[in-house]
Amino acid sequence: MGAVVGTLTMQTKQRRPSRDKADDDLEMTMVCHRPEGLDQLEAQTNFSKRELQVLYRGFKNECPSGVVNEETFKQIYSQFFPHGDASTYAHYLFNAFDTGHSGSIKFEDFVTALSILLRGTVTEKLQWTFNLYDINRDGYINKEEMTDIVRAIYDMMGKYTYPVLKHDAPKQHVDAFFQKMDKNRDGVVTLDEFILSCQEDENIMRSLQLFENVI
């Protein structure tokens, strides 16, 4: 959870000199995709108008066209994990952001997800994370999906983080996950089971609060 939020916000924290709304609106007309108006985005997210302006400038700086395709997203995300291979995890993360399955992430997609991860309720944050793990989007997390996610995280962190990682470590991690979260032992984890298990875990609940004031 922390890896998701931390890397997504690093690019947007540097503030530029203050400019007025006319300048921001002018900027928004000069890209291939023009985001929704600030008033509408302010109503749809938990960000203020000023915060949205800062986020937009950071987004446009990385993505001048106003949209991000998967390859560009992978390149940006991989910069934060130079000792590992983040491409697979970035693929899953991209799909979680691309809620419309359009093959690209617009600024609206970006701030909507960021609003949930940074300022959403506990249930909203956990539901977003569940959707990230539910790779085939059938409403359940199965062991194959969780194994793919865990392997992607290990690959992303790299051998310097896990120098003596055993070959069966991902399987052990997944088995522990299901032992804890698959309440009725039917081989899959539902959203309700996921939320309930996370709410019972103090470490997970603390991690959800780490980035609430990051912007």
UniProtKB/TrEMBL annotation:
- Quick one: where's region Disordered? 1-22
Q: Name one GO molecular function term.
A: potassium channel activity
Record's GO cellular component terms: voltage-gated potassium channel complex
PROSITE patterns of this UniProt entry? EF_HAND_1, EF_HAND_2
Q: Where in the cell is it found?
A: Cell membrane
Keyword entries, A-Z: Calcium, Cell membrane, Ion channel, Ion transport, Membrane, Metal-binding, Potassium, Potassium channel, Potassium transport, Repeat, Transport, Voltage-gated channel
EF-hand domain sequence ranges: 85-120, 121-156, 169-204
Report the family membership. Belongs to the recoverin family.
The protein's name:
EF-hand domain-containing protein
Source organism per UniProt: Sphaeramia orbicularis (orbiculate cardinalfish)
Gene name per UniProt:
kcnip1
